[in-house]
Amino acid sequence: MNHALALAEEAAALGEAPVGAVIMEGDVVLAAERNRMQALNDPTAHAELLAMRAALAKRGTGRLDGCDLYVTLEPCAMCAGAIAHTRLRRVYFAAEDTKAGAVENGVRLFRQPSCHHQPEVISGIGADRAETLLKDFFRGLRER
Q1: Known catalytic residues?
Q2: Which residues contact 129 (CB under 8 A, 6 or more apart)?
Q3: Which one of 48, 72, 89, 120 has the fewest CB atoms closer than 10 angstroms to its CB?
């Protein structure tokens, strides 16, 4: 999670919402990304999606079974759907997202009967640091 938090800090420094994501296969980092929505002019360029795409390319498969995702913010519905489709084994997230989160908040996608794959979810690791990054970033935007 420390690697993901460092990526979130990098994102904030570049004017992106501070979210970082790392995909691990055992002890090997398959992919590490940060939000790039502003840089790419792409509202789908969330850290999780970028990391999943990179990990899939590195693996050369359409699945990430046996892999774990570490992300600094609870995934949204778009990212949660991609997590289910790629069949990630486990999702660790730091900060809860009560507005747009879709794992433990909102639609709780993995708990829906229509969700074909439910990864194990572990939340709260690094939450204080992630929440501080997010609050500071959005406070800075409001003060402009």
Answers
A1: 48
A2: 5, 94
A3: 120
